[in-house]
Amino acid sequence: MKVSIIGGATGSGKTTVILKLAKYLNSQGEKIGVIVQESGEVDYDEKTLTELGIKTREVNSVCIPCSLDTDIRSNLLTIQEEFNPDTVFIEAEETVLPHKLKADLERMELTDVELLPSVVLVDSPEFETEDDQLTEYVRKQTAGAEIVCMGKTWMDSDEHANAVKELIGKLNPEAKIVDYPENDDEDFPAELLG
Q: Of the chain's two ends, which shows fewer C-beta atoms within 10 Å, N or C?
């Protein structure tokens, strides 16, 4: 079972990206699970999830790391046992560091689990271009991500999008920076699919 941890600020497109990836993988014959850690409303349409055969588990806690051993591990094991998905997406709320969550899961040595690179989504038009303008969480998420996925670049000016990429490169020279496509018929960044 592959596990993909996707984080980012509220409104960065996490739910949209996960649903698009889930639809694509489902069309390839994969079974998909989603674990949502959110303190507010969950934006998954039950009809869409049912049509795709996606199983979800919601984690209602203040933060994933605080309840990791009980909630996330338990939910991963339960979804693995009950549904045996090929891929599980964990949608982390904006205050969670996906790379730290991945490191915690690695230490758990879960059986038959392959952890994919940690992903952080950024909303290109809304992303600041100066380091001192970023919030602490955005800076830490970006600096620790293995993949930074830029969304809504088609709504941004080339100048601003390039400045965002430059700042991300300074914060995290090791990260792969990919653009998420505007249209469903465009190819997904292969890095997001493992």
A: C
Whether 64 and 71 have beta carbons less than 8 Å apart is answered as yes
The 10s digit of each residue's pLDDT in 76-87 is: 888 888 888 999
Per-residue confidence at 62, pLDDT binned at 50, 70, 90? very low
Q: At 54, is the secondary structure helix, strand, or coil? A: coil
Please tell me the distance from the alpha carbon of residue 145 to that of residue 26, in angstroms, as a whole number.
26
Token pair of 70 as six digits: 């009980």
Give the whole-angstrom CA distance, residue 102 versus residue 116.
9
Contact 78, 57 (CB under 8 A): yes
Tokens of 155: 């709504």
pLDDT: is 13 or 116 the higher one? Answer: 116
- pLDDT bin (cut points 50, 70, 90) of residue 8 is very high
Query: Nearest to residue 105, comparing CAs of 31, 35, 178, 16?
Result: 35
All domains of the chain, ordered by start, with CATH? 2-193 (3.40.50.300)
* Buried/exposed code over 50-78 (b: 16+ C-beta within 10 A; e: otherwise): eebebbbbebebebbbebbeebbeebbee
What is the phi/psi pair of residue 186, to 5°?
-80, 155
What is the pLDDT confidence band of residue 60, given thresholds at 50, 70 and 90?
Answer: very low
